[in-house]
Amino acid sequence: MNRALEVAVRASVGAVAAAAVAVFLPIAFGLMPDRFFGASCTAGEALGTRLACYRFMWNTITVGVFIGIIGPMIGTFLVHREMALIGETLAHTAFAGVAFGTLLFAGTGWDVRLLLVALGAAIVGALGVQALAKRTGSYGDVPIAIVLTGSFALGTLFIDLGGGFAFVDINSYLFGNISITDDRSVTLMALVSLAVVVVVSLAYKQLLFITFDERAARVARVPVAGYNGLLIVLTALVIVGSMQILGVILVAAMLVVPVAAASLVAGSFRETLYTSIVVGEFAVLSGLVLSWLFELRPGGTIVVVAIACYLLAVVRTGRTGSAPTSH
Question: Which keywords does UniProt give here (predicted)?
Answer without folding.
Answer: Membrane, Transmembrane, Transmembrane helix
